[in-house]
Amino acid sequence: MFQFLTSLNKNNKKLIVFLNDIFHLAIAHQIFLATPLASSSSLLMSFISLVVIYAILMELLGGFSEVIKSYSAERILTHLIPLTLFTASYALVFVYESINNNFVFFKSLAFDYVIFNVIAGYTVSFSLITFSRLMAKVMIYGSTTISGATRVYIFGIGTSARDLFSLYSENENYDIIGFITNDKDNFGRSLFGKEIISFKKAKKIFKKDNNFNVFLALEQEELKNRAEVINELSNMAVTVKSIPSYSEYLEKDKLVLEELSAADILGREERKYSDNNLVKFFQNKSVLITGAGGSIGAELAKSLASVGAANLIFLDSSEFNLYKLQEFFGAYKNPVNVNFELADIRDKKRLDKIFDKYKPKIVFHAAAYKHVPLLEESTNFVEAIKTNIIGSKNVAELSQNHNCERFIFVSTDKAVRAFLALLAFTVLYVLSYAALLALKSVCVAFKLAKVPVVVASAVLLTKSLADNAILDKPCVVTTTSSPPVTL
Known about the structure:
With 487 residues, this protein is α/β, with parallel strands linked by helices. It has 20 helices and 14 strands. Strand 7, helix 13 (295-304) and strand 8 (311-316) form a beta-alpha-beta unit. The chain is elongated.
C-alpha cells in the first residue's frame, strides 16, 4: 500500500492529501459545527463554504506543494489561515443573527454554546489534519533519511530555490537536507522545515563527507559569486548542478536542472555568437569535420549545426562515437543536413571518395591521437605516426586536390608540448607540410587552431575555431597556466 502511494505522481498525491484533509474537516464540522445550524441546507452550505475556502487558500499558500514527505512546520501553520477565516465568518454570521434576533442560518442557541463549538471545531479539525499528515509521513517515509536517495543541499533561498524544492521534494531519488546561503540574516532559520546554513558551515560538512549534490539556485544579486562557489565545491568533489538563467527558465515548460556549462567552469561569461558575418561565411557551404565523434569534433559538429551550413559531413573511425553523434542529431530540433561517414583518415582512397561525393569547401581536421601517456607505452607510437602524420597528410592533400577554401588543422597542448618528442615532431611535420601546400595552392587557406585544453563542453573552443576560419579575424585563446596564444 505504501509503495503504491510513493509511486504516484505529485498531482495524484495532492489529490489524496486533499481528500484526507476534507475527510477530517467533515468529521470536525459534523460533530461541532453542524449542531447549531438550523437546517440541512444550512449544513450543506456551511460545509461547501469550508471546503472551497480551504482548497483555494491552501493551494495559493502552497499548502499542497510539500505533500507528505517534506511536510513541515511552515505547512502546518498554513492550515490555520483558511480555518481561521472560515470559523471567524461562521461566528460573525451567528453574532449578526443574534443581534437582529432573526435566526435563519442558525438555531436560537446560547452564545457561549455556539462559540465553544466554533473553537472546538477549529481546534479538532486542525489537530486531525496535522496528525494524519505527520503520521502518514512517518509510516511511509520513516523519520530518517530515505535509503538510497541522493542527499541534496539547495544553494539559495529565493524564489527559484523554493520552486526547485517544490519540484524535487516529492522525488524519491532525492532527499533535500537543507538550504545554503550567504545571507547572514537567515543563518540558523528554516525553510520548508529544512535548516538554512552558511556556506562556511556547508564546506565543513562537505570536507568530512562529500557525498552530496548541491543544486545552485542563485538569485540575480548572487550571480557575481557563482564561479567562486562552483570552484570551491568542485575542489571538494561535490556534485554541482544548476538551474538555467531566468531568461532560459522562461523559455522552458518547467524548471529543470542542468549540468554545468563551460562558462560555469571557466568562471566567465560565455561569448554569445550572433555574428552575421560568421553565419554568412558558413552559409550554403559544405563542411567536413574529421574526428567528429571526439570531444573537440563533437562540439564543433553541434555548434556548426546552428550557423546554416548547407551540408555537414561528420567523419570518424569510431563506430560508437559516430553513433552517439547520430543519436544527438536524430533529436535535433532545427532542420540541418547532416551526413555520417565511418572512415579512417589513413585510408586515402576512402577519403578521396568522400571528398568527391560531398565536395566540402571547409575542412576542420580534428582527427588525431592526443593522449601522450598511452602513446608512450610499448610501440603505440607507430599508430600515432600512421594517424597524426600520414592521416593528416592525406586530409591536407585531398583538401588541396578538391579545391577546398579552408583547411583548419586542430592541435592541442597535449600534442604540441608533448614529453614524447615523436608527438611534437608529428605536429611540426604537419604544420610544415601544410605550409608547403599553402605556398603551392592558389585557392586553399591552411590554418592552425591551437587548443590549450580539451573541455568536454567546449562551447568556447568551438566558437574560437569557427571564428578562426575567417582569415581577417584572429583568435586569442588564454588559460590561467599559459600565456595567450594568437591563432
